[in-house]
Amino acid sequence: MATRNLPGLVKTLNPFRYPSRARAFNSLVSEHTTKWMQDMSKKSPMELINEVPPIKVEGRIVACEGASNPALGHPIEFICLDLETPAVCKYCGLRYVQDHHHH
């Protein structure tokens, strides 16, 4: 159903067809970004993800999906953990390290 509405949405957002709408949208985004950048009380997404400790896994390869719910995650990235330093997911920034302590 949503794909039927896509051509209309593309026409609506087309900056060449409606340049005033494009300017208004760009202005709104720019204003929001400026406000966010000025508020120093909030942490950036990178600061928040860096607070998460590296996730220990037993195997050499980990599959990161970003979230337990696939609808909220990202494409699966298979990460090799052969190095001693934590490996970082290129999509979400989660860090993984191989746990060499086996029971």
From TrEMBL:
<dbReference type="Pfam" id="PF10276">
    <property type="entry name" value="zf-CHCC"/>
</dbReference>
<feature type="domain" description="Zinc finger CHCC-type">
    <location>
        <begin position="59"/>
        <end position="96"/>
    </location>
</feature>
<protein>
    <recommendedName>
        <fullName>Zinc finger CHCC-type domain-containing protein</fullName>
    </recommendedName>
</protein>
<dbReference type="GO" id="GO:0005739">
    <property type="term" value="C:mitochondrion"/>
</dbReference>
<dbReference type="InterPro" id="IPR019401">
    <property type="entry name" value="Znf_CHCC"/>
</dbReference>
<dbReference type="GO" id="GO:0006120">
    <property type="term" value="P:mitochondrial electron transport, NADH to ubiquinone"/>
</dbReference>
